[in-house]
Automatic annotation (TrEMBL):
InterPro entries: AgrB. One of its GO terms (biological process) is quorum sensing. It comes from Butyrivibrio hungatei. The chain crosses the membrane at residues 44-63, 75-95, 101-121, 142-159, 165-182. It comes from the Bacteria. One of its GO terms (cellular component) is membrane. Keywords: Cell membrane, Hydrolase, Membrane, Protease, Quorum sensing, Transmembrane, Transmembrane helix. This is Accessory gene regulator B.
């Protein structure tokens, strides 16, 4: 990723699109863009291979905002994060595809995990300090996301949609686990 982003940044610098002083900013932007693109494309390929595109999109509807605002464990390299993310997605989708929990058990797992996330609060990363104001914003956005997902889980419970409720429970269980791991790793 770094090699490709450096080449792209060098190219636009040589074409006069950016100035030398902005080089690092654009290089970082290209790295982020390439990493997100690779992760997204890989996730879609996994979902298509498993025949589970809609559940994958539902997974990301819940996982991305919660992970963005709630924090959790951050691995030391993009490759480690990429592999872990692919594994979490694959395990979640395969579990929903081949296993079934009773509807109320899925709902209970979701509720316990969501409550734990609310009580734990956002987890900071040592490489990016967060002040009290930002932490309050992250807490509010986490709470809004949990409220939104709770409404979804109640609707899924009402309509007896066990596979999506179970997927939501699995996602929240993974999120709670990464919060625990993140708190322990950042001590």
């Amino acid at each position: 990723m770094y090699y490709i982003s450096k080449r792209l940044t060098d190219y636009i610098l040589n074409k006069g699109v950016i100035e030398e002083k902005d080089y690092d900013i654009y290089n970082y932007g290209f790295v982020c863009f390439l990493e997100v693109t690779l992760s997204t494309v890989t996730s879609i390929i996994i979902a298509l291979f498993l025949g589970m595109l809609r559940p994958c999109l539902f997974f990301f509807l819940i996982f991305i905002p919660m992970r963005s605002y709630g924090g959790g464990l951050h691995l030391n390299s993009y490759l480690a994060c990429y592999i872990a993310s692919c594994l979490i997605l694959t395990i979640s989708l395969l579990t929903v595809k081949y296993a079934t929990l009773p509807l109320l058990i899925s709902f209970l797992i979701y509720l316990v995990s969501a409550a734990f996330i609310l009580l734990t609060g956002p987890v900071d990363h040592p490489n990016r300090s967060v002040d009290a104001y930002e932490n309050d914003i992250f807490k509010k956005k986490t709470n809004i996301t949990i409220l939104f997902s709770t409404v979804i889980s109640v609707i899924l419970l009402f309509y007896k949609n066990n596979s999506y409720l179970m997927l939501e429970a699995i996602v929240f269980a993974f999120l709670a686990i990464t919060l625990i791991a993140g708190k322990k790793a950042n001590r």
